[in-house]
Amino acid sequence: MPLASTLRMAALALFWGSGFLWIKLALTHGLTPAQITIVRCALGTAVLLLLARRAGQRLPRSRSTWGHLAVAALFCNALPFALFALGEQHLDSGIAGVLNATTPLWSLLIGIGLGTDRALRPVRLTGLLLGFAGTVLIFAPWHHEGLWSLPALYLLGAAASYAVAFAYMARHLTASESPMAMSAAQLLAATTWSTLALPAAGAFRPDATALLAVAALGVLGTGVTFYLNYRLIADEGPTTAATVGYLLPVVSVALGAAVLGEQTGPRVLTGMAVVLVGVGLTRRNTASRTRGSAGARDAGATGVPPRTATAGAIATADAAEGSTAGATQDASQGRTEGATQGADGTAVEATRDAAVVMAQGAAPAVARLRR
């Protein structure tokens, strides 16, 4: 892999994985969950609007498209962003990052329920069971000092919300030659949704640390990560980009321990490893099909490395968690295979396969951005 792509992947993992740290810092220095969600969406929208303008892309004009984007924005941005902030009021940022990695497991369950993912072979079933077993191990509800609580449900709800969004977008949002404009429109809709919580947002009394943290979350963790992910897919293909999702829990746990002094015991670390192994197993039967179909479709077309829709998100980060407005584009290809922000729409937005975002017509936009 070229050095530029390696550095881009490292920056992507750092920016996405640090999102949970920025949320925690913003919370502990004066911002409420609603305020964090609103500012994050607004700053991410501003970044993507600037990038879309630079690429010569325009916001959609169709009312039906805006309607679908509004639904996607609720489940892929406004709701999970708020739920992660609510959960991190009482749980560590590292735990939030690890649970974001469960998005592909929820996506697989949804695919089975909707009948869109019938290839539940033994290896994928094993992965699904392992993933949720790892989640149970993390929370240890059988221990008095376990982490099972309402905040834990908020975090799991955020990961599940990404999965719902990816399934919806796969059915209702079609491929577009303006992926950044579509993502900007989705975050704009998410900003509108989040402002509905203003009456309950509380007093605005952040200190300088909170302002810097939420600025980093919105600009770097939400806006810039889309562009980096977009370029990484164009240069190296979606399979390489999807591997970033597996780094996000590691980054979030490491930053939580180094910056915030969070104590992550052997049980949580073991649970994280089990979750990631489970996610990897759920992707085994889809990876070869993804690579094969991508190569056949793109051979000789644009000179851009083969690309396909790997529904994205860990996790959001953006996750995003999701990171994850850009998940609109990969979900639009009509696949929800394993979901991860990304999260397999991330990575995971790890996982969030961390919101891998490349629509069929994206190559011309990449060329314009490079110029």
What does this entry look like structurally?
The structure is a single chain. The protein has 16 helices and no strands. The chain has helices at 3-17, 19-28, 33-54, 63-87, 93-100, 103-114, 122-139, 150-172, 179-195, 208-236, 238-242, 248-260, 266-298, 317-321, 327-331, 363-370. The longest helix has 33 residues, at 266-298.
What's the number of extended β-strand segments? 0
Rough outline: globular
What share of residues is helical? 55-70%
Range of strand content: under 5%
Span between termini = 22 Å
N-to-C SSE string, H for helix and E for strand? HHHHHHHHHHHHHHHH
Q: Average pLDDT across residues?
A: 76
Which key features would you list for this structure?
about 375 residues; mainly alpha; 16 helices; about 0% strand; globular; disordered C terminus
Brief rundown of the structure:
This protein has 371 residues and is mainly alpha-helical.
What's the structural blueprint in terms of helices and strands?
Elements: H1 3-17, H2 19-28, H3 33-54, H4 63-87, H5 93-100, H6 103-114, H7 122-139, H8 150-172, H9 179-195, H10 208-236, H11 238-242, H12 248-260, H13 266-298, H14 317-321, H15 327-331, H16 363-370
Helix pairs in contact: 1-10, 1-12, 2-5, 2-10, 3-4, 3-9, 3-10, 4-8, 4-9, 5-12, 6-8, 7-13
